[in-house]
Specification:
- By secondary structure, the protein is α+β, with helices and mostly antiparallel strands.
- The chain has helices at about 1-10, 55-60, 75-85, 110-115, 145-155, and strands at about 15-25, 35, 45, 65-70, 95, 100-110, 160-175.
- The strands form 2 sheets. Strands 2-6-4-3 form a 4-stranded antiparallel β-sheet. A 3-stranded mixed β-sheet has the order 5-1-7.
- The radius of gyration is 20 Å and the shape is elongated.
């Protein structure tokens, strides 16, 4: 409805095309994910399951949390962008080749904390290895857990930033002033 209003009032004409850009890709590693129960519905949430400890309470630098139940790696890749707290801005491509359904939990430091520490440049996370941790506070006194490191250590997958075609909305034309009501 909004698109038709913009087209009518502003003469907006757009199309979508693939443009080269930086985007995350999930690659295979040594999976550390628990096999999902087919009786459960596939879902992801930012709530800690009853009876489990919240990693955000243990390490105040861990602000992003994602718990998925009975999901495929494709579903996880689609959901990761939304749970990344603005670290990931483009769709995540799954090239892991991993089949099946899994229960998984992922927790890491959000972009706002990285910016406060000066570890984020232009809204992007630093390269893996810039601030690494084995667990809350280990090897890094700040307790920072980078997204790429969390995916590797907690799930056994590799999350890499690479140049590849990503969908982009291209404005072909529009009126300088909207038409009258």
């Amino acid at each position: 409805m909004l698109q038709s209003l913009l087209a009518e009032r502003f003469g907006l004409k757009v199309h979508t095309e693939d443009r080269p850009g930086n985007a995350y890709t999930l690659l295979p590693g040594t999976p550390k994910m628990k096999t999902g129960d087919p009786a459960n519905r596939a879902s992801c949430t930012d709530r800690v399951p009853p009876g489990e400890k919240d990693p955000r309470a243990v390490n105040p630098m861990v602000t992003q949390y994602m718990h998925c139940t009975n999901v495929t790696v494709d579903q996880f890749a689609r959901e990761l962008k939304g749970y990344s707290g603005a670290i990931i801005k483009t769709p995540v491509l799954n090239k892991s080749g991993i089949e099946g359904r899994y229960d998984l939990t992922l927790s890491f430091t959000g972009i706002h904390q990285l910016e406060l520490l000066g570890l984020a440049q232009g809204g992007a996370t630093p390269a893996p290895g810039a601030a690494r941790t084995e667990g809350p506070g280990a090897n890094d006194p700040t307790g920072v857990v980078l997204l790429q490191d969390a995916v590797a250590k907690q799930l056994g997958l590799k999350l890499v930033l690479e140049k590849r075609p990503i969908p982009a909305l291209v404005v072909d034309s529009m009126l300088e002033k909207p038409t009258e009501n």
